[in-house]
């Protein structure tokens, strides 16, 4: 897809949002309240990618606003960032019924939307939240091995990109060990970004 060269990232995202809200590529849309596009700074250096909207997200149209979202906000403030400083989106834009995992078909249907968001924002770093998000980009890897490590990988549709894998805040919320690991990995994000900038 191409946009007029003088069109801002913000305007491009707005245009994409309009198109996405009319999507019926899979059956999720007919069972949810709204498409949760994603939000944040269109010029963000860091893009967080979760799995799919839950109940609260479906009700409000904003990503990560339930319990997992509160936890994410807390971790962001630990590294002196606010939600508005980063971009937050999901692999699937529509809530799966009863919060079940999105199916491979649903993930595949939504993939072009996510790719287009990434192409517009061009973040320096993509932080995947949870196994499903990691699996999209770093196929066949184990999250228990990948978490907290920077991976540089070329994805045909987006080019060379930096990925940093984290456990999902919802999974880590009530699991002491995983929570501790997530907190430690999260605190390394500023250093990871610094390293990326130094080496480019
Ligand atoms: N969990 C996710 O993966 N995404 C959200 O937006 C909320 C909870």
Structural key phrases:
single chain; 200 residues; alpha/beta; 10 helices; 6 strands; globular; binds uracil
Describe this structure in a few short sentences:
The chain has ten helices and six strands; from the N terminus they run ααββααβαβααββααα. The chain has helices at residues 9-20, 28-31, 55-60, 67-78, 104-121, 131-137, 143-146, 169-173, 176-187, 189-198; strands at 39-40, 46-50, 87-90, 125-129, 150-155, 159-166. The longest helix is centred in the middle third of the chain and has 18 residues, at 104-121.
Explain what this protein looks like in three dimensions.
Helices cover 45% and strands 15% of the residues. It is built from 10 helices and 6 strands; from the N terminus they run H-H-E-E-H-H-E-H-E-H-H-E-E-H-H-H. Helix 1 (9-20) runs antiparallel to helix 5. The protein starts with 8 loop residues before the first helix and ends with a helix. The model has no long low-confidence stretch (mean pLDDT 97).
